Amino acid sequence: MVERNLAKVEVAGSSPVFRSIARRTDGAKAPPVTVGAVFFCTRFLLFLRLHDGHPCHGIAMIDFLSQPWPWYIAGPLIGLVVPALLLFDGKQFGISSNLRHICAATIPGRLGFFQYDWRREGLWNIVFVVGVAVGGFIGMQVLASPEATIAISERTSTALRGLGIVDQTGFVPAELISWNGLLSGPGLIMVVVGGFLVGFGSRYAGGCTSGHAISGLANLQFASLVAVIGFFAGGLVITFLVLPLIL
């Protein structure tokens, strides 16, 4: 996340879009659940629209929520997070900055980087991330459709099998991202080393994919454009050069 208190230092020139909105929303007291309420209302109204405004029944709602979200609905909703947070709460969207907030709340030590009012600056973001985790759990355990499958192209599936990844039924390859996979060399590299690089890189860059690609680009920040190009370039290097060596 490109945080407001670091934007002038880590990001070359905050966007005039953000400055304009921030001035109008400075001191906004809207609760952090505002964006969640917007999402819920949008989803609910969409349900009514598709069902011709008939009264909602619990089973029908569950069935509706269990269906995959089309890209033309999920994509704009994700994009609307940015203006919703700026307009209602005067904040920027991001995820990785919660690593700093959690450290400041638990083990700040004497490092100046963790000496700040994390409740004022980051409590809302921690609540947001907890909501993402809870929502993901509910989606997988309660709303998941038994018929749903992971859509992988045949070419990609063949390439993965060639690398030894044969179990393609989950969201992540079980041969690597699992407790058993963690005991293997490739799994250790992917989870531990890869996780460290993701955490360190996101803080060093002043934001992760959500802070730069979603919030930063929407705010017209050039540093975010450079970061996003680096994300894609790094992904291509790992996919075509590093993974074949590891696996």
Descriptors:
single chain; 247 residues; mainly alpha; globular; disordered N terminus
Q: What is the number of E strands?
A: 0
Q: Which structural class do the helices and strands define?
A: mainly alpha
What fraction strand?
under 5%
What are the low-pLDDT stretches, counting only 5+ consecutive residues below 50? 1-14, 24-33, 47-53
Largest sheet: none
* Helix-strand sequence: HHHHHHHHHHHH
N→C terminal distance:
32 Å
Question: Roughly how many Å is the radius of gyration?
Answer: 21 Å
Q: Roughly how much helix do the residues carry, as a percent range? A: 55-70%
Question: How would you describe this protein?
Answer:
By secondary structure, the protein is mainly alpha-helical. The protein has a domain of 142 residues. The protein contains twelve helices and no strands. Helix 3 packs antiparallel against helix 5, helix 6 packs across helix 7 and helix 11 runs antiparallel to helix 12. The radius of gyration is 21 Å and the shape is globular.
